[in-house]
Design brief:
The structure holds 2 protein chains of 2 kinds.
Chain A: E1 2-3, H1 4-7, E2 20-22, H2 25-37, H3 39-45, E3 50-56, E4 66-73, E5 76-82, E6 93-97, H4 99-111, H5 122-126, E7 133-135, H6 139-142, H7 144-147, H8 149-157, E8 164-166
Parallel strand pairs in A: 2-8, 3-6
Antiparallel strand pairs in A: 1-5, 3-4, 4-5, 6-7
Chain B: H1 22-35, H2 38-51, H3 80-83, H4 134-143, H5 162-179, H6 181-190, H7 198-224, H8 233-243, H9 248-273, H10 277-307, H11 311-332, H12 336-347, H13 353-377
Classes of the chains: A alpha/beta, B mainly alpha.
One fe (ii) ion binds near residues 179, 182, 211, 214 and 290 of chain B.
Chain lengths: ~170, ~400
């Protein structure tokens, strides 16, 4: 688990050797660091207050699910953690997809230089529940995904700056 | 000799005289010169004091107030939540009794007798307005404003094949037509709400601004893509039903919870099926605003029901209202001017409209389920009574 002190201004790795593994807590920490470095963009988009969970349905070593929670406060990502049983229910909403779906999205964003094509935005992938499913037990909390959608898109778009390697490569 | 710069055909008719406002002006003069004489007494008193060369300085007297406590900003600035912690901010009353513009928290009791009464302030019950998230949503709205002129990459807009361009422009025409009821409705109630409910008034003002921007961005997009297309009577009746709602809570349910929930779904679909990055950006921006309006609608209804002295009766009234409202909203969302363009965009062309209609079946069911979940979250179970079919009517 990382908090804002450790996430703040963490630069993206500079050499291919420092490529980060997806999915991993390190990958999400680096993404959070990029957000915290890019204060100007996020200040322009406005406050974002929610806990977003990214679930990789087949991301664990045994092929089961692994999930990461990112806490957003004001214009920063203040906490990143791999979800343990005691963290269940902290999230405002969860985005659930297979490793292949997440990989396709990340590679598409990278190919677009930080902007996905028309088919690979978070909303386009999640709107009809597949290939990304939006879940959350409280409809009001789940609506945070919509209230902060542009900031969340910006958050994942920054992954174009992260050299990423995928499990199984 | 060159061409004359003006021909007889260029001469426009003289402007028609503006109507005179004799009657209204005479009424106003009578009111303020004869009937309302308290302001003249105040004027006289002040002039007399000033002509004696005497100062009042009564406004420096803080007896009976908690003056001197200073509001402290939090990390995000000085929010309403920060200042509302202070006793000097004044407590929001359950029933408003100040029917004028005096700020809540000001030293005002001693002036009550001399104050005018604003007859239009008729929504005096906090629980016809309040929602537990209204302060958060106001601050969020202010922080997340955007500009339809500046924040959309208009320069990237490319012409689409004719069927997709027409479908896009029809969808944007529909959205232009519906957007401003979501501005007119809060506007209709805004001036009826006393100042002591300033947080609610402020949130409604952000909704007005949001809707002005939505109408602006959709209108600009249609005009940038070829023009506005067809208006629709089916929407018009739904919009009128919203505006005519008998109470603020009923109208907020119909507009914010049901109508804007549906519009949020259309924006999400719009983003998914957008054929240009311009359209994607438009829908992502607008859906964020819309989700705030929906959130207010859910908790406003919940607060209304939770605080009502006769919950069973309040629920039955809301059900009766929803029975009508849902059917009228359904009329709007069966209009060809919205269903067909969305189906064409979803399918990928006029020749694939059937495929698009099929895809919309899932979106329809998802929307109804989301609507019913939002109702449940507000403590208003519509599952057994919902007049909108769970399956799309095609
Ligand atoms: Fe709107
Ligand atoms: Fe709205």
């Amino acid at each position: 688990m990382s908090t804002m002190e450790t996430l703040g201004n963490k630069a993206a790795p500079e050499s291919p050797a420092a490529a980060l593994l997806f999915p991993s807590v390190g990958w999400f920490e680096a993404l959070a660091g990029l957000m915290n470095d890019d204060r100007e963009t996020h200040e322009h988009l406005g406050f974002i207050d929610c806990v977003a969970q990214f679930t990789v349905l087949d991301g664990a070593a045994d092929g089961g699910p692994v999930a990461y929670q990112i806490t957003f406060e004001e214009i920063q990502a203040t906490d990143v953690r791999e979800v343990k049983p005691e963290d269940a229910g902290r999230e405002s909403f969860a985005l659930e997809a297979t490793k292949a779906t997440w990989r396709e999205m990340i590679e598409n964003i990278s190919a677009g230089g930080g902007r996905p094509d028309l088919e690979h935005t978070l909303n386009a992938l999640s709107h009809i529940g597949t290939p990304i499913a939006l879940t959350g037990s409280d409809p009001l909390e789940r609506d945070c995904y919509f209230r902060f959608n542009q900031s969340l898109q910006q958050f994942v778009n920054a992954s174009a700056q992260l050299p990423t390697v995928f499990d199984g490569d | 000799m060159g061409q004359p710069s003006c021909t007889p055909n260029d001469i426009k008719p003289l402007p028609v005289a503006l109507p005179l406002n004799e009657e209204g002006l005479a009424f106003y003069e009578k009111k303020y010169q004869r009937d309302y004489n308290q302001w003249t007494e105040i004027l006289q008193r002040n002039v007399e004091r000033m002509s004696r060369g005497s100062l009042s300085l009564e406004w420096m007297n803080t007896d009976g107030s908690a003056w001197g406590k200073r509001a402290k900003p939090s990390s995000r600035g000085l929010t309403y939540s920060d200042v509302n912690k202070l006793p000097t901010s004044g407590e929001m009353p359950a029933t408003a009794t100040w029917m004028n513009f005096t700020p809540r928290g000001s030293i005002r009791d001693r002036y009550r007798e001399e104050m005018p009464v604003i007859d239009d302030y008729t929504v005096v019950s906090r629980d016809e307005l309040w929602a537990g998230n209204v302060v958060t949503l106001y601050e969020e709205a202010v922080a997340r404003q955007w500009s339809a002129t500046r924040d959309i990459p208009w320069g990237e807009l490319e012409a689409l094949p004719e069927d997709l361009e027409k479908a896009s422009c029809q969808l944007f025409t529909f959205l232009t037509e519906v957007e401003f009821v979501a501005g007119d409705f809060p506007a209709k109630w805004l001036y009826r709400i006393p100042q002591d409910f300033l947080e609610v008034k402020s949130f409604l003002a952000t909704q007005l601004m949001d809707e002005a921007r939505h109408q602006e961005v959709f209108r600009k997009r249609a005009l940038a893509g070829g023009g506005l297309l067809h208006a629709s009577p089916g929407f018009e009746w739904a919009l009128k039903a919203i505006l005519d709602a008998p109470t603020h809570t009923m109208g907020t349910f119909l507009l914010n919870l049901l109508g804007e929930g549906l519009i949020l779904s259309i924006f999400r679909s719009g983003e998914m099926i957008a054929k240009t990055h311009v359209d994607k950006e438009i829908f992502r921006r607008t859906l964020q605003d819309e989700a705030r309006h929906v959130s207010y609608g859910v908790l406003e209804l919940k607060n209304y029901l939770d605080t009502h002295p006769d919950r069973a009766k309040a629920l039955e009234e809301m059900h009766r209202f929803a029975d009508v409202g849902e059917q009228i909203i359904l009329t709007a969302f069966t209009e060809a001017t919205v269903i067909e363009p969305v189906a064409i965009l979803l399918g990928g062309g006029l020749d694939k409209i059937e495929h698009g209609l099929e895809g919309m079946l899932k979106v329809w069911s998802m929307f109804i389920e989301e609507y019913l979940q939002r109702c449940e979250r507000a403590g208003f179970d519509r599952r057994a009574r919902c007049k909108i079919p769970v399956d799309a009517p095609w």
